[in-house]
Amino acid sequence: MDRGQTGVRPRNNSIVLDFTYMGQRCRETLRVKPTKTAIREASRKREAILYEIAMGTFDYGKHFPSSKNAIKFSKNKGSLITVERALKDWLKRAEKRCQRSTIRDYNSAVYYHLIPAFGSLTLDEIRKPHIDDWLDTVGNLSNKRINNILGPLRQTLKDAFYDELIDVNPMDRFRNLRIDTREPNPFNKDEIHSILEQLQGQNKNLIQFAFWSGLRTSELIGLRWKDIDFENDKVHVRMAIVRGIEKTTKTTSGQRSVDLQPEAKAALFEQQKYTNSSKHVFHDPKTDSPWSGDHIIRKRIWIPALKAADITYRTPYQTRHTFASMLLSSGSNPLWVAQQMGHKDWGMIRKVYGRWIPV
């Protein structure tokens, strides 16, 4: 090989360029057949690289965009990584620390919304106006859903900023959309009585327990008999079932022990007739298996019961609001109520249920 081709050598069906950059020996492979013509062209490319290095204008990513060294040496690393690639890398990391149901939501956000909207942009290209433009296309999505969709993008760009792939995180300039807190509209005792009168068997036990325990629906259907302490009148809330998947409760404060109210205890005694030998307390009577999700309860039990009782529709979550308002109205300590509800402190109780706290 002549002098002009020093640092250029054929290897199988490719050509390897060898040069030194920033004190480090670099080898890059050109995926071309090593003909004499190709080798001469490769030699010219190497000479151009050496000249640019000498002049201080060499851009690794421009010559070798797919190389690992491109990101290592590039002055503008964000120009070499697409938002799609960054999102997928973030998902892989998230899979190691998040619940499966959470990863399912993340996948939906990433693959059905974020990649189609922003995936082709590089990290250094995406700007707040891109997000504003996307908002104009989302139709009737709720603010909460939009915030959830943008969550993975927000975290991905945050990581990119900390990793010095970008100088500015555009999501820092985009505030989450405002979510209107679901206004408590609790049921009174006459309404509770009317609703329960429309139900029987396991369905009645489930709804009665919901009204007098304050558990979320996912916690209700995840409740196990081993979590019930009849001797000390306690319900230990440890698990939840979301989309058919059993998982621990969402937060540490969510793992709590709830005092067993007489009405809730009565519902459990009745439920023992049906599922005492099973793992989970509440079953779907049609399948004799644990409920797979709250949507079935809402459609099959809740909506028909309210219609039959001639009561204006309210979501099943209002059973939880009802529980809190009844405790507070009876003079219970707000701090204790916060613990019963699984709140970290009583700030949420004061904010949401303040009108039921006696003065």
Write up what this structure looks like.
48% of the residues lie in helices and 11% in strands. The protein is built from 15 helices and ten strands. It has helices at residues 36-55, 60-63, 68-73, 83-94, 100-118, 128-135, 143-162, 189-197, 201-211, 217-222, 262-275, 294-308, 318-329, 334-341, 347-353; strands at residues 8-11, 14-21, 24-30, 228-229, 234-237, 239-242, 245-248, 256-259, 283-284, 289-290. The strands form four sheets. It has a three-stranded antiparallel sheet with strand order 1-2-3, covered by helices on one side. A three-stranded antiparallel sheet has the order 4-5-8. 30% of the residues are buried.
Q: Say how many strands there are.
A: 10
Q: Could you list the spans in which at least 5 consecutive residues all have pLDDT below 50?
A: none
Class of secondary structure makeup: mainly alpha
Overall pLDDT: 89
CATH superfamily of the largest domain: Intergrase catalytic core
Strand content: 5-15%
Domains (count):
3
Largest sheet: 3 strands, antiparallel
Helicity range: 40-55%
